[in-house]
Amino acid sequence: xxxxxxxxxxxxxxxxxxxxxxxxxxxxxNPNAESLCSLAVTALLTKLRAKAxxxxxxxxxxxxxxxxxxxxxLARLATSVVVETPCGSCGGLELPEGHGLxxxxxxxxxxxxxxxxxxxxxxxxxxxxxIQRDEATATPQLFYAKLPxxxxxxxxxxxxxxxxxxxxxxxxxxxxxxxxxxxxSILFLNTVSCPEGLEALAAQAPGVRILTAAVDPGxxxxxxxxxxxxxxxxxxxxxxxxxxxxxxxxGR
Length: 252
Known about the structure:
This protein is an alpha/beta fold and 252 residues long. 31% of the residues lie in helices and 27% in strands. It has helices at residues 7-13, 39-49, 55-75, 110-120, 167-178, 195-204, 232-237; strands at 33-35, 79-85, 88-94, 101-107, 125-134, 139-146, 155-159, 162-163, 186-193, 209-215, 218-219, 225-226. The termini are far apart.
């Protein structure tokens, strides 16, 4: 059966081979984390994961998936309301207004998700945190941060497609905390996560909420998520890997 999915999905997925079933819920590794369960998410992730996916196909699938994550993320910051319909009253959710939000781009791939959020809330504030990973040690290094002066008063949406070791996310969270942002005010959106990163945030930033599209089994020897998608930024921006045959088809 599909764990963590509504019953209406189970029949559809009953015939799927093991590789196609949904991952265990993220709460297994972090009680404040949630993984999306959706046929659309699975289909888009499949296109992102496939080694043969061209850059054009990767960008198209990534943008569609980011739009879903952005909508779902904003919905988790909504407040309960009761509205009057033409035929009566109905309980529902009211999405947050953009002026009370700040989306944070963990450069560079975080900008892809940030733009998806900003398309929904054009008046939200934005912030940039530049963190580079030392490829030899897999440890993060902070190079630059630019935050709104009143960020401590905002609900913060932290954007980074991949949650691997958790090092970059935790460094970004420390930068935000030093600016007065409470962990409970942060929602971390990412595309693919793994137990190591989820557990690291549970231990060091337990108040931060996480919404992910997938939980993969773990990290490989290079500290990349496996099976993952490869280097998300290189595949999206086309900066490396296509001509080298790491991914894509016929150099594209």
